[in-house]
Specification:
The structure holds 2 protein chains of 2 kinds.
Chain A (H helix, E strand, L loop, with lengths): L2 H22 L11 H16 L11 E2 L6 E2 L1 H13 L3 H27 L2 H12 L2 H7 L5 H20 L3 H17 L3 H15 L1 H6 L1 H24 L1 H10 L2 H4 L1 H11 L7 H7 L2 H16 L2 H6 L18 H14 L6 H8 L1 H4 L15 H18 L2 H32 L1 H5 L5 H10 L6 E4 L4 H9 L3 H7 L1 E6 L5 E6 L2 E4 L12 E5 L7 E2 L7 E2 L6 E7 L6 E7 L6
Parallel strand pairs in A: 3-6, 3-7
Antiparallel strand pairs in A: 1-2, 4-5, 5-6, 7-11, 8-9, 10-11
Chain B lengths: L2 H19 L11 H14 L3 H26 L9 H11 L1 H7 L14 H11 L2 H7 L16 H12 L5 H18 L11 H23 L4 H34 L6 H11 L5 E4 L6 H8 L9 E3 L11 E6 L10 E4 L5 E7 L1
Parallel strand pairs in B: 1-2, 1-3
Antiparallel strand pairs in B: 3-5, 4-5
The chains are: A alpha+beta, B alpha/beta.
């Protein structure tokens, strides 16, 4: 290894280490909680480890039933070794995400090097990705998106390597990466194939010259994909259930604006003219392109960030502010070279599936775009520094460095200081669930209790109590009724009874009631210090009040309702 | 200047003027708060005509279309109009939703600067650069567009394609970019978020950039034409034509409906009522729910209301004088002794009058 290469790899390792630390340090406090989705992945990993089945007793599933949303199961499979090593814990559950996030830094740097042949750009890309606000935020909790981003980046890198040195092994591993991305996240099932089409188009000559390798790899990929394809063909409704439930196509809000316009059309207007101006196709396309353009908005990318509170860091956009100046330059440059064209194409492909979502723009669904975005910023930075005169280049580098540090500090302050102190933002992270479960454990174990389950509390009881999966599989009762999203809810296991909401106190069949601050019904009056009163002013005795650590506000209540009141 | 250029300018000027003068006094129906401030000052000079009030602004805006074209032609002498950014900018401005609506208002668009925080300036600046806001959703707060973007979204498609095709940016592109950035920065210093009228400088820049995009695309399409290029050209022309028609429909039908539902118009029936009935009362007390009651009443009554009789005070209970008329928002109405109720054209009940 030459000295230059050695220095490059040392720097790269240091940056990857920095990236890992930014995703790992304080994992138990930041984010300020552990979500129900994370508990699903952790407990299912535990269940797979113990029984080879998911929590509902399905052997080696490709999708986890979870809340009835049938999410991709790969995350839980990858968490199995960590759960085996460390036990069922928050760290074991989050490690696949943290590691995937950290490895993405390495893969993006290598991809940048293959594409640009420039070590400096590669290191800059690594640094920008290691410190990328949304990527840090999302890699710090258990989610599927960091996995799919890693596998997509790995697939693209390996295909680029193969296009320069066509060896079958590269192509087979690239194929495996794309297949894994499909197993890891819904949106990658569209982004991956579209990227492949673009890569094949860009490397058509190499493919033509190595057709045998391509055919072998395609067959290999199809074999690996067959369980997912079989699941999709056998249960098409389940395969798309989660995607559809989060889609604007299901909620049809776009129709309302069309109806409003139709109602304000001129009286007596011919119906054909009305249809010409206000039709479903126009409403749908407008909504879709509006959502798509939101993903490209500078406000979302560089200033305010994700409007979804779970994925939002106060004072920070999705990317570092310095990228605002660098990425457009890189984008335009990359458009004019076949070698780099995949990067702008990837950036434009990434929001395609996210744009049918209900909540847009969405940094989670488009997390993979962090790879092309940072590489484009690296290309832009290199172009600016090499094209400008030395004096101007120094000024530009100075300005961009200050912007980068300023933006990074804003993110770190927002993430590590503001979020933990904000009651509203903390609430998205299911604070104090462990304390709630511990309190439930202190109650009389023979006493049944009713849980108002709007926060999926059952999943935390399973997770923190490490309920034996084989027992749970036998004893769980799933409601036959589906909720408004088409999901099935848990109605009972053991002494725990679950109800979705509490509009009527006669729904309670037990003396003990667990309720969170969002689910408080009209007939109970939420009081901070004193026992809540029901509408008839009958006293209900709180067994336990769990307070939010940051705000001191009560967030969960365990009530002991006198039997005469039920 | 060639014959074609002269003809083009003539047509564009004529079309701009025509589209902006049609029912100028009646569309938009309401007189905005900014308009009433100007109207109040110059009403003694021009009389109380909405059309006359708006006309100078309309003329200035209409002639800004050929003027901008001429400015672009100074930077970039056109060879063929079909490939000329200036010519396309003129076409876009003529039918542009934001330009059409600003032309129909007698408003001073930029006001004093505000002492904003860096956060506010940043938020506004980035919001003003949002492509969704500019090309799709538009402005509903200041009624600068109706169910469409401020700019025609068909021009965004050609802009995207051109950005991908062009290898070197010319001076028109850079100047458009500078106008956009400066205009957005200026608007960011103005009061109110989503203050689209204050964004007018940037909108000129965006229109110029869109015109540049169409011109570049047109140039590319005519190089080695093939079936794909012809299809693309026809599809884009079709979308563009549809959007222009749709945008005009929005302006004359939907935007007009929205403006008819604005609270400013409630002063119109109130003014008519007061002109007829003011002599019966010594004083008229108005509970100030809506802005500028004196100015609006003076305007809509064409100066016939005795403004000395009017008292504007939110503490109506303090007044027990005889021969006094109370005008109040509908949520203050009690069911007895109401002399008159006032409705908007849309049927919403807004104000009432009753003797104290």
């Amino acid at each position: 290894m030459t000295r230059g290469k050695k220095t490059y790899f040392i720097w790269l390792s240091l940056i990857v280490l920095l990236g890992f630390l930014l995703r790992f340090v304080g994992f138990n406090q930041y984010p300020p909680g552990f979500t129900a989705d994370e508990a699903v992945f952790g407990y299912n990993a535990y269940s797979l480890l113990k029984t080879g089945q998911d929590e509902f007793g399905r052997s080696l599933p490709v999708a986890l039933k979870a809340f009835g949303d049938y999410r991709p199961a790969l995350y839980s499979y990858l968490a199995v070794p960590f759960v085996w090593l460390l036990g069922l814990s928050q760290l074991a559950t989050r490690l696949p995400s943290m590691l995937a996030g950290s490895l993405t830094i390495l893969v993006a740097a290598l991809l940048a090097k293959v594409i640009t042949k420039n070590q400096l750009i590669s290191l800059l890309v690594a640094l920008l990705l290691a410190t990328s606000p949304s990527h840090i935020l999302i890699s710090r909790f258990a989610d599927m998106a960091p996995l799919s981003s890693l596998f997509l980046a790995l697939g693209v890198w390996l295909l680029m390597v193969w296009s320069q040195r066509p060896k079958l092994l590269w192509l087979l591993v690239a194929c495996l990466s794309f297949v894994l991305s499909a197993y890891s996240y819904h949106s990658a099932r569209v982004t991956g194939p579209l990227l492949l089409v673009c890569l094949f188009w860009l490397n058509f000559k190499t493919i033509k010259a190595n057709l045998k390798q391509v055919l072998i790899s395609a067959a290999f990929g199809l074999v690996l994909l067959s369980p997912l394809l079989a699941f999709t063909l056998k249960f098409p409704e389940l395969a798309v259930r989660r995607g559809l439930s989060e889609s604007f196509l299901r909620q049809k809000a776009y129709q309302i604006s069309a109806w409003q316009l139709i109602s304000s059309d001129a009286p007596g207007q011919h119906p054909l003219i009305t249809r010409f101006f206000h039709n479903q196709a126009k409403a749908l396309l407008t909504q879709y392109f509006g959502n798509y353009l939101e993903h490209l908005s500078a406000d979302f990318l560089f200033w305010q960030g994700d409007p979804n509170e779970r994925f939002q860091t106060p004072l920070s956009g999705v990317y570092n502010l310095a990228i605002l100046i660098l990425a457009p330059v890189g984008f335009w440059l990359a458009l004019h070279s076949r070698r780099t064209l995949i990067l702008p194409l990837w950036l434009l492909i990434s929001p395609l599936i996210s744009s049918i979502g209900l909540f847009t723009p969405n940094s989670l669904h488009t997390l993979d775009s962090v790879v092309p975005m940072t590489i484009l910023a690296g290309i832009g930075a290199h172009h600016l520094s090499s094209r400008l005169k030395p004096q101007k280049a120094k000024l530009a580098i100075g300005f961009l460095s200050i912007t980068f540090i300023y933006s990074l500090l804003r993110f770190l302050y927002g993430y590590f200081v503001i979020i933990p102190q904000s009651g509203e933002l903390r609430w998205n992270w299911y604070p104090q669930m462990q304390a709630l479960v511990a309190s439930l454990n202190q109650l009389d174990q023979s006493e049944p209790l009713t849980v108002v389950n709007s926060r999926n509390i059952h999943q935390f009881i399973l997770f923190y109590n490490q309920i034996e999966p084989s027992w749970y599989q036998q004893n769980v009762v799933v409601s036959e009724l589906v909720d408004e999203n088409g999901f099935n809810q848990i109605s009972q296991f053991g002494r725990f009874h679950f109800i979705a909401n509490l509009s009527d106190k006669h729904q309670i069949s037990t003396r003990l009631l667990v309720i969170d601050r969002q689910s408080i019904p009209d007939w109970l009056i939420w009081q901070e210090l004193n026992p809540p009163l029901d509408a008839d002013n009958l006293l209900t005795k709180p067994e336990k009040i769990i307070y939010d650590q940051a705000t001191g506000q009560p967030i969960y209540l365990i009530l002991n309702i006198p039997l005469k009141n039920i | 200047m060639s014959h074609n250029q002269k003809l083009y300018l003539l047509i564009v000027s004529f079309l701009s003027l025509s589209l902006r003068l049609i029912k100028l006094g009646a569309i938009p129906a309401n007189l905005s708060q900014k308009e009433i401030l100007i109207a109040d000052k110059i009403a003694p000079l021009i009389g109380y005509h909405q059309l006359v009030l708006r006309l100078p602004f309309t003329l200035i805006f209409s002639f800004s279309v050929p003027l901008l074209v001429l400015l672009v032609w100074r930077i970039n002498q056109p060879k063929q109009l079909i490939f000329d950014p200036g010519a396309w900018t003129g076409v876009l401005l003529t039918v542009s939703p934001w330009h059409l609506l600003l032309s129909r208002r007698a408003e001073i668009l930029l006001s004093y600067w505000q002492n904003l925080s860096l956060e506010d300036i940043g938020q506004r600046f980035f919001s003003y650069l949002s492509l969704k806001y500019l090309f799709l959703s538009g402005d509903n707060v200041f009624l600068l567009s109706a169910s469409s973007g401020l700019l025609l979204s068909a021009s965004l498609i050609s802009l995207f394609i051109s950005l991908m095709l062009v290898r070197k940016f010319d001076s028109v592109f850079w100047q458009a970019l500078v106008i956009i950035l400066v205009g957005s920065a200026l608007a960011s210093l103005q009061p109110h978020l989503d203050n689209a009228p204050a964004l007018f400088i940037a909108l000129f820049g965006w229109t110029l950039l869109s015109g540049w995009g169409i011109a570049k695309l047109a140039h590319w399409l005519q190089l080695k034409p093939n079936l794909l290029k012809v299809s693309l050209a026809l599809a884009l022309l079709g979308i563009f034509a549809y959007q222009v028609v749709s945008s005009l429909h929005n302006l004359y039908i939907h935007h007009q409906k929205k403006s008819q539902a604005q609270w400013e118009l409630i002063y119109k029936p109130l003014a008519e009522y007061l002109v007829k009935n003011q002599d019966h009362y010594l004083k008229i007390l108005i509970i100030p729910q809506y802005a500028y009651p004196l100015k609006y009443l003076n305007w809509y009554s064409k100066g016939k209301i005795d403004l000395k009789k009017i008292v504007v005070d939110k503490y109506s209970a303090d007044y027990q004088d005889k021969n006094m008329l109370l005008i109040g928002p509908i949520h203050h109405k009690q069911d007895f002794n109401v002399a008159q109720e006032f409705f908007l054209e849309t049927g919403s009940e807004v104000l009432f009058a009753k003797p104290i």
